[in-house]
Every structure is written in structure tokens, then in C-alpha cells.
Amino acid sequence: MTKTVMIVDDSASLRQVVKMALTGAGYNVIEAGDGKAALALLDGRQVNMVVCDVNMPNMNGIEFVKEAKKLAAYKFMPILMLTTESQESKKEEGKAAGAKAWMVKPFSPTQLVSAVGKLCA
Questions:
Q1: Among 15, 30, 85, 75, which residue's Cα sits nearest to residue 55?
Q2: Among candidate residues 102, 106, 105, the one with its CA nearest the CA of residue 115
Q3: How many folded domains does the chain comprise?
Q4: Beta strands in 1-121 (DSSP E)
């Protein structure tokens, strides 16, 4: 069964890079430009995992994780933060919100696909 990954990032070019890596590895991909748009996509559809930026307009990644975890259907969905933020304090904040993993940009698409594979398993 094909797994669906949602990419949440305000950079369209970054979403494109991630999408190419994941579709190339056989995943379905849906995209959102910020946390608010991403939450609207959590409408009961099958989303196996989210790859999410931290710094975005309207609703940042950590706020998104907190809100997504309140939705019963998505409570246990793994969320990977993909961000330029590398401070421990931000990582702790992400973990506390419910993020499963943290990857710092720039990243290698191979690394990302491998991380997604582990988290989606």
C-alpha cells in the first residue's frame, strides 16, 4: 500500500525537492505552505507522516505539531521537523510538542527518504 507523506514548508522550492525525493521512493505526497493550510488537510484523509518546517508564517511548525496531535485520527502520526534550526532548545520544544524526529537543512534527499522509511514503517 502506498503511504502518503505531507510536506509543510513555506518554501515552494524546498517542497519540490522533498516531493521529488519522496515520490521517487514511491510515496504519495501532499503539500501545504504553512501550519494552518496543513491542519486543513488533516480532514480524515490518510496521512502516514508529516515532514514539517519550523519557521513559517500564519502557524509555525511547533504550533502545527501541537494542533495535529489534538486530532484523534492523527494523534500517533509521526512528524519529522525539517528545519534550519539546530539549537537544542528548539529540538526540545519540538519533542515536547510531539515531533518524532529532527533533521537540519541542508539535508541529503537520501537521508530524508531513509528517515521517512523508518518513521513510516
A1: 85
A2: 102
A3: 1
A4: 4-8, 28-32, 49-52, 79-83, 101-104
